[in-house]
Amino acid sequence: MSVGFEKIILLYNPNTYETADVISTFVYRYGLGGAQDFSFSSAVGLFSSVINLAILTSANFISRRVNETSLF
Question: pLDDT at position 59, please?
Answer without folding.
Answer: 93
